[in-house]
Amino acid sequence: MSELKRFKLPDVGEGLTEAEIVKWHVAAGDAVEINQTIVEIETAKAVVELPCPFEGTVAELLVEEGATVDVGVPIIAVDVGGGEAGGEPGGTAAENAEALKEDLVPVPEEPGMTAPEEPKRQPVLVGYGVKPGATKRRARKAAPPPRPQPADGGRPLAKPPVRKMAKDLGVDLSAITGTGPEGSITRDDVRAAQRPAATPAQAPAAQADEERIPVKGVRKATAAAMVASAFTAPHVTEFLQVDVTRTMETVRRLRELPEFAEVKVSPLLLVAKALLTAVARTPAANAAWDGDAIVVRHRVNLGIAAATERGLVVPNVKDAHALSLPELAAALHRLAETARSGRASPADLTGGTITITNVGVFGVDAGTPILTPGEAAILAFGQVRDMPWVHEGELAVRRVTTLALSFDHRVMDGAEGSAVLRDVGAMLEDPIRMLAWN
Predict the structure, then answer these.
(1) Is 199 part of any domain?
(2) Choosing from 25, 235, 321, 409, which is the catalytic residue?
């Protein structure tokens, strides 16, 4: 006998309120197992793969790809009873909500109520589901099968997101022949109906004067975080030009060592190590403002700002202060690969304590970086380029970069901020100092 269970969008991060359905890995009629990946979602922090908490057959995908849904909204219906899929249609959003109420609200026992079977423990997602026997369900009559596409003059068959899209674009659904299941109208059908058929005599359409790009996902979260940071923490930014000729030579020599054969060694590695050493000398740089107290952290989770196709993300290396130089190189390499592939997890993107942003990769000398919310300092590393420089009393061409440190003036005084920047610069000018100060 069919028994339909609906999987609700869970909170996969800290305080997640909504997510976008990026890609379904299953379709109606597919068999699924517990913990099988069924869908990719994009949150404000990362693209996350969700496992299925049920075993059975997919009855219906309740949300289309590209749609944004709130946490707690059902996204897929799975037949776990072993019967034919689709014995209980997904129905409209209102019907789904009503069904959920009946599923989740405990009810008193009544005469004639079906006795529950011996409870079985099944693995579910952390924070999702209830203990067996915690609720009782009323027996429900089987719902009628889904209705086919109505005859001419009836309501066109289309899901709510498609209807909204058609309304926004001014497309008449009744004039469209659907190509989806059972003749339903899809997003592609609406887009095709919006575009008039081109003829050879037509002139090229004039380019639009403007384009509206919806702000969502990472870019939406980044915008909110930057506004909150810029207008709550009093930023101070200091700049320092540094001769990094010796650092570049050290990078070349590290690449030749067998300990670094499997990882990419770049100047960023030594910048990161220098900042970690400077933090140990000035702990206020690894602190945070907490209303009536300054919280000084003794663990350094080093964030590295990364520009990706989805926007700016800042994954961090946990306990970076405790890593050896080869371990730090490997961690930075993994972090970069994960960020570029869009697979950084919420755990990778939370808990940072201080950040480095490498603006030099864009050919930029310097900037005024905005603090990552909850942190007291961020270091910008500019491009390394040949410049005339006074070296040992003579003018020479040297490899030079510009460092910029922004810090929260509530947490760090100017002397402390200057000490961090000066120390980082001194270690990049002469990497031997890292050995002396560690």
Answers:
(1) no
(2) 409
